[in-house]
Amino acid sequence: MQDLLFSVFPNENFVDLSLYQFGWERCAPSHTFGPAARNHFLFHYIISGTGVLYADDKSGQTKTYRVKSSQGFMIFPHQINTYIADKERPWEYVWIEFDGLRVKEAVEVAGLSLNTPIYHATSHDLRETMMNEMLYIAQHGNMSPFHLIGHLYLFLDAMTRSVSSIQLSSTGRLQDFYIHEAISFIEQNFQNNISVEDIADNCGLNRSYFGKIFKKSVGRTPQEFLLNYRMTKASELLKLTKLSVGDISKAVGYDNPFHFSRAFKAVYGIPPREWRNRNQIHPIV
Questions:
Q1: How far apart are CA 199 and CA 153, in angstroms?
Q2: How far is CA 111 from CA 97, 122, 169, 217, in A?
Q3: Interval 170-199: pLDDT, tens
Q4: What is the per-residue pLDDT for 173?
Q5: Using an 8 Å Cβ cutoff, are 160 and 123 in contact?
Q6: Any idea where the domains of the chain sit in the sequence?
Q7: Per-residue pLDDT tens over the stretch 127-159
Q8: Cβ contact 137:155 at 8 Å
Q9: Across the beta sheet with 32-36, what order do the strands follow?
Q10: What whole-number percentage of the chain has pLDDT above 90?
Q11: Chain centre distance of CA 147
C-alpha cells in the first residue's frame, strides 16, 4: 500500500493565495522531520495517530506540543520546528504549504499564531470538510492550477469556520479598501518608477500610516511586496520570452540592469541569466 503522496505546485503567479507543495503520508514509527524552517505557511492535519511538535514561539523559545488525530498544527514562515511521529501510534497526516495576501488574515481568524499553533475544531462537519479538501488537493496534483487554487480557497473557508474563536478582521472594511487600492496601483504601475510614497498618495494616506496597515494586512512591507511582485513578473519574462535582461529590467521598472540583477538575486538567490538557463521553457517548433 502506498504510504506517501507528494506534489509541488507548478505555478507561483497567484498573488492572493498560492500553493507551494502538498501531500499525504502514513508515517513510519518515530518518523522525524527537522529541525527546519519554511518560507511559507505549512499546515498539517492529523488523520490518525499521535506525535510531538517542537516549535519556536514568538519569543524564540522552543515549545513542545503533543498533537493527535482530529487536530492539526501550523508552521509559520521562518519558524524553526521539528516534528516526530509516535513510536507506537505514528501519524497519518495530510499537509499543504501555501501563502498569499489573504493568508495572514485567515490564519489569525482561525486562532493560529506562533504562540498557539495547534488547530482545534469545534465543528465536526466543517473539520471533515476541511480534511476532505486537503485530501482532494493531495490526490489531484495533476489538475490545473486554477482548479487546485479553487480547492485551496475551500480549505481555508472550512478551516476558519470550523473553529469557535472566529474574530472579525481587525483591519476593517476601510483598511481593506486601501490595501486593494494599493495592490491595484502596483499591478497597473509596477513597470514604472514608482515609490512607496506614490502608492500611499494614490490611496490618499501618509506614508507612515500606509506602511503600517499594509504590513499588518499583507504581512510584508510595501517595499517588500513591490520588489517581490516585480521579480515574479521578471521571472515570467525570463522563463517565457527571449527578451534580453536589459529589456526585462525596463519592463519591470528598473532603468539600470545592474540594480535589477542585484534585486533579482536578492529574491531568487542567483542572477537572472543563470535563473533563465535553469528555468526557461523552450517552445516546441
A1: 28
A2: 18, 12, 11, 16
A3: 445 567 778 888 988 998 899 998 999 999
A4: 59
A5: no
A6: 4-161, 172-279
A7: 999 999 999 999 998 898 899 999 999 999 999
A8: yes
A9: 32-36, 81-85, 50-56, 62-68
A10: 60
A11: 17
Residues 93, 27 contacting (CB under 8 angstroms)? yes
Cell representation of residue 247:
529589456
pTM of the model: 0.61
- How far apart CA 46 and CA 127 sit, in angstroms, is 11
CATH class of 4-161: mainly beta
Enter the C-alpha cell of residue 159: 478551516
CATH superfamily of 172-279: Homeodomain-like (1.10.10.60)
